[in-house]
Amino acid sequence: MLQLRDTAVLVTGAGRGLGWGIARAFGIAGAKVCVTDLDEEELARCARDLAADGTTHHTRRSDVADLTECATVVKTIVNRWGRLDVVVHCAIYMPLIGFEALTPEEWWRQITVGLGGLFNCAHAAWPQMKSQGGGHVIGIASGSSLRGYKDEVAYCTVKHGVEGFVKAMSLEARAHNIALNTIGPGAPIKPTRMTWAEYDQAPTNLRARWADPVELGQAWVWLAAQPPGRFSGYRFDAAPLVQTIAREGPAFSFAPEKVTLYPDDFRARQEWYSGYAD
């Protein structure tokens, strides 16, 4: 198992679901983990699980749509642990609303949480990562990063935007040894909107269809363990990456087919970056 001791990690939107699983995976790997969310009850549940894992952790209620709050979280992490190595932006707000029923307020809330939150977290962490010599910023990808779906106009816009942010910022971050990437789950997961209470009441056969977010979280751990200069600007997918690690070990011989559901896209990005003049 990969070990990330002395690594400080921030995971936003970690009260439940994928963010919760990623936070736990980092903790199991030995990292110090700060988790944020708006739901205090679910944040407390995450804290209990991290404590049970033996993880050094800190929890904070914080709204990623507020740059000042993001900056406060980063300052708290650095004051506690002396550094910030990894930011994983999982926080999302995604009510399913058709365009005609989508108010401007709902539109901007989704945009400012999902896409604005990524900017805010990266902006807040940037000076610290530069000063310490590097780091990782990781967004969450999905099928909506590539396709469109009914009732997801804002969500699809967010996910397409996250990919654009990562592609462009990866070029500017090269000089500072900061890597920006995305990882999608790569397998069916619990619906983002489902609360812990709803999950606990869901039929066992339904829950069995969803991938274990802690197991998927190993993909984020693997990527964070790579030197920042190795991969930046790419989209990975957790399920095939975790399967590759289980089959070949974390030091596997790399090939795009082993780490993403979209290897042609990965190669196209490799070609673009290799020919891009700074």
Report a brief summary of the structure.
This protein is of the alpha/beta class.
Write up what this structure looks like.
- With 278 residues, this protein is α/β, with parallel strands linked by helices.
- The protein has a single domain (8-275), classed as Rossmann fold (3-Layer(aba) Sandwich), CATH 3.40.50.720.
- It is built from twelve helices and seven strands.
- The protein has helices at 17-28, 40-53, 67-81, 104-114, 116-132, 153-173, 196-201, 204-207, 213-216, 218-225, 238-248, 263-275; strands at residues 8-12, 32-37, 57-61, 86-89, 135-140, 178-184, 235-237.
- It has a seven-stranded parallel β-sheet, sandwiched between helices.
- Helix 1 (17-28) runs parallel beside helix 2, helix 3 packs parallel to helix 5 (116-132) and helix 4 packs parallel to helix 6 (153-173).
- The chain starts with 7 loop residues before the first strand and ends with a helix.
- The relative contact order is 0.13.
Arithmetic mean pLDDT: 95
**CATH architecture descriptor:** 3-Layer(aba) Sandwich
Into how many domains do the coordinates divide? 1
Instruction: Please give the radius of gyration in angstroms.
Output: 18 Å
Largest sheet entry: 7 strands, parallel
CATH topology: Rossmann fold
Element-level helix/strand string: EHEHEHEHHEHEHHHHEHH
